[in-house]
Design brief:
Helices cover 25% and strands 23% of the residues. With 341 residues, it is α/β, with parallel strands linked by helices. It has a domain at 121-339: Rossmann fold (3-Layer(aba) Sandwich), CATH 3.40.50.150. It has an 8-stranded mixed beta sheet with strand order 8-7-6-9-10-13-11-12, sandwiched between helices. Strands 1-3-4 form a 3-stranded antiparallel beta sheet. Strands 2-5 form a two-stranded antiparallel ribbon. Helix 4 (194-202) links the parallel strand 7 and strand 8. Helix 6 crosses helix 7 (276-288). The longest helix is centred in the N-terminal third of the chain and has 24 residues, at 24-47. The two termini are 37 Å apart. Residues 1-31, 77-99 are annotated as: Disordered. It holds the Pfam family Methyltransf_16. This is Nicotinamide N-methyltransferase. InterPro entries: Methyltransf_16, SAM-dependent_MTases_sf. Residues 7-16, 85-99 have a biased composition (Low complexity).
Length: 341
């Protein structure tokens, strides 16, 4: 399962990208604790087969992402200035069909539909949808037969929207992308050091990919000089768990269409923590905006080719009568979009 690739690292939020993440004493204690946690985590899918976490880590925490191809990657989870590792309980991600019931405040009077509370952006987690993208890109780079070749990034120009910790971007860089641009909302905590930390920590200086970090507000296009300069330039666009704010669906769809190259593709991965109808609404919006769904299916988070069990998929459905909060978290929607016509 994908979550077995992640392990917490002790007290890394204060380290620079050149520090050793473990001293000798901490390493021994952490290794014993991690081993016990790993054993417990391995049994969770058997004890709770319908349960799968949608997000991982605490604000400011560093996680060890074990990549079969690229080795161990240290990923720092973004945090707001007044947040510390372990404080996530005060700002948990939305888990219900109603965004309002999750405590997310939308400024409906704003022309841009801005989320008035910065923490409602939920950049301060590593989302399972990002793990799905990272695994697929890595497996495609490894040449695994089960992976659609469209996940290959060698020589591609990649744009990640709502990147947060930017794990998919980091894996894309390691997988041979020609160019990777990492974007998040200008007020996102990820832009305050976490993305830069993750790049410096995991990308060799000899890597030839052209990498940039760009603040970007969805829907702000013709008035943004960077957006104007890069219209239609990206052959691969990553959008992982960016869809729960329905007020932003139109802006996000506009942004995707604006930046997508004529023959480019968009990778869309959406967890069901806010309900299936949110994903359905977004897909209807992208069609209205001039994009079309090239491929779509549902994937079980609790299975993985890397683990040797094979990935469990099922056909996409706009509605499942038997589905509810108690059994939907193990599934995510994976889709590939392109320009219509």
């Amino acid at each position: 399962m994908l979550r077995s690739r992640l392990r917490p690292l002790p007290a890394l939020s204060h380290l620079s990208s050149t520090d050793d993440p473990r001293d000798d004493d901490a390493a021994a204690a952490a290794a014993a604790e991690d081993e016990a946690e790993d054993i417990f985590a391995a049994f969770l899918p058997h004890l709770l087969p319908d349960d799968a976490p949608q997000f991982h880590g605490d604000p400011g925490q560093c996680l060890l992402y074990s990549s079969p191809r690229y080795g161990d990657l240290t990923i720092q989870v973004p945090s707001y200035p007044d947040q510390k590792s372990g404080s996530a309980s005060s700002s948990s991600p939305p888990e219900s069909d109603s965004v309002a019931s999750a405590g997310i405040v939308i400024d409906s009077t704003s022309d841009s539909g801005q989320v008035s509370a910065q923490r409602s952006l939920f950049a301060h987690f590593l989302w399972s949808a990002g793990l799905v993208v990272a695994e697929a890109v890595e497996d495609a780079h490894a040449g695994h037969e089960h992976v659609d070749e469209m996940w290959k990034v060698e020589g591609e120009k990649v744009l990640e929207l709502g990147a947060g910790a930017a794990l998919p971007s980091i894996v894309s860089i390691l997988a041979g992308a020609a160019e990777v641009t990492i974007t998040d909302h200008p007020s996102s905590p990820a832009l305050r050091g976490a993305i830069a930390f993750n790049l410096k920590r995991n990308i060799p200086a000899t890597n030839g990919c052209a990498v940039s970090i760009q603040p970007h507000e969805w829907g702000t296009l013709a008035s943004d000089s960077w957006a104007v300069a890069n219209q239609g330039q990206f052959t691969r666009i990553i959008a992982a768990d960016c869809f729960w704010m329905t007020s932003q669906h139109k802006n996000l769809a506009q942004t995707m269409k604006w930046f997508l190259a004529p023959e480019g593709r968009i990778w869309l991965v959406a967890g069901l923590h806010t309900g299936r109808s949110v994903v359905v609404d977004f897909l209807k919006t992208v069609v209205k905006m001039g994009l079309e769904v090239d491929t779509i299916y549902e994937r079980d988070h609790n299975t993985s080719w890397t683990e040797g069990d094979g990935e469990i998929r099922r056909d996409w459905a706009e509605f499942r009568e038997e589905e509810g909060p108690e059994n939907r978290s193990r599934w995510c929607i994976v889709a590939r979009l392109k320009h219509a016509g």
